[in-house]
């Protein structure tokens, strides 16, 4: 998360390795936590008084919500299809994005070893396909911004974040609720 924050091994305090970033004090961390708590509370109070949690009568009361959904013709199967679709989307969106990115040649970097350390170049590359003069077959070559020509490149896939993981877990929980508890 905060890769530029390191721990001072002598004192145990967090120190910043980035120039211009002072370490956060205890007071500042507590204020940030209090701010986040106030935001969540500010969101939850209106939802409570609208009846979402079932303690107060309101338009979002679970009983009224179920009655209004059933009067619109939404059945248990419709809800299950919705939450299973949401679960499938939250699970596979990055697989599809990575596959499309790989097919069009995006998110690729140069693998040419440079310098004495042998570290890869890492510059973005463009994929070029041409017919080889020697073999007569189609050959793929990657050309980086620094002029390196390589027969292969490194692909950097997009990984799911915490929001996507929360979304598929919530969808799975609602699928369970619709199937077994309703």
Task: Summarize it.
With 182 residues, this protein is α+β, with helices and mostly antiparallel strands. It contains four helices and nine strands; from the N terminus they run ββαααβββββββα. Strands 6-7-8 form a three-stranded antiparallel β-sheet, with no helix packed on it. It has a two-stranded antiparallel sheet with strand order 1-2.
Give a structural overview.
This protein is α+β, with helices and mostly antiparallel strands and 182 residues long. It folds into three domains: 1-73, no CATH class; 75-107 and 157-182; 108-154. The protein has four helices and nine strands. It has helices at 26-49, 62-71, 76-104, 162-181; strands at residues 5-7, 14-16, 108-110, 113-114, 119-120, 125-131, 138-144, 149-150, 153-155. It has a three-stranded antiparallel beta sheet, with no helix packed on it. A hairpin with a 6-residue loop joins strand 6 (125-131) and strand 7 (138-144). Helix 3 (76-104) packs antiparallel against helix 4 (162-181). The longest helix has 29 residues, at 76-104. It starts with a strand and ends with a helix. Residues 1-11 have low confidence and may be disordered.
User: Tally the helices: what do you get?
Assistant: 4
Tell me what portion of residues adopts beta-strand conformation: 15-25%
Based on CA atoms alone, the radius of gyration comes out at 26 Å
Number of strand elements: 9
Q: Which strands sit side by side, in order, in the main sheet?
A: 6-7-8
| Count of distinct structural domains | 3
Distance between the termini: 39 Å
Characterize the main sheet.
Answer: 3 strands, antiparallel
Level of helix content? 40-55%
- Report mean pLDDT, rounded to a whole number: 87
Which residues form runs of ≥5 with pLDDT under 50? Answer: 1-11
Order of helices and strands: EEHHHEEEEEEEH
Shape: elongated
The secondary-structure class comes to alpha+beta
């Amino acid at each position: 998360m905060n890769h530029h924050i390191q721990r001072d091994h002598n004192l145990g305090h967090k120190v910043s390795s980035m120039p211009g970033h002072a370490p956060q004090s205890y007071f500042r961390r507590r204020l940030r936590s209090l701010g986040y708590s106030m935001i969540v509370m500010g969101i939850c109070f209106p939802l409570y008084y609208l009846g979402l949690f079932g303690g107060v009568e309101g338009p979002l009361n679970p009983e009224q919500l179920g009655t209004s959904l059933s009067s619109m013709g939404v059945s248990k199967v419709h809800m299950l299809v919705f939450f299973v679709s949401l679960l499938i989307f939250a699970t596979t969106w990055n697989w599809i994005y990575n596959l499309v990115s790989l097919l069009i040649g995006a998110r690729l970097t140069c693998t040419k070893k440079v310098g004495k350390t042998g570290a890869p170049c890492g510059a973005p590359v463009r994929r070029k396909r041409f017919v080889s003069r020697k073999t007569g077959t189609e050959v793929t070559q990657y050309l980086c911004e620094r002029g390196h020509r390589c027969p292969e490149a490194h692909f950097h896939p997009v990984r799911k974040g915490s929001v996507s993981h929360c979304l598929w877990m919530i969808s799975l929980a609602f699928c369970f609720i619709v199937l077994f508890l309703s």
